[in-house]
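User: hey, got a sec? need Protein CBG05533 folded
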Amino acid sequence: MFKYLLVVILLIALIELATADFSCYFSDSICKSITCRNCKVATCITGDCVCTLCDL
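Assistant: Yep! Here you go:
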């Protein structure tokens, strides 16, 4: 039972990472890498990652 619960929690976490509305739940480094390429400054606004300075 505990193994199934752990698998479900991990699947939910992976689905959350894959969604377009990436929440800033984990860290700024993940936020920077997902929001845009070479993001210099990433901030969390209402749970969404927003990159303010990008190098395209």
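Quick note: The CA atoms of residues 20 and 31 lie 12 Å apart. Let me know if you need anything else on Protein CBG05533.
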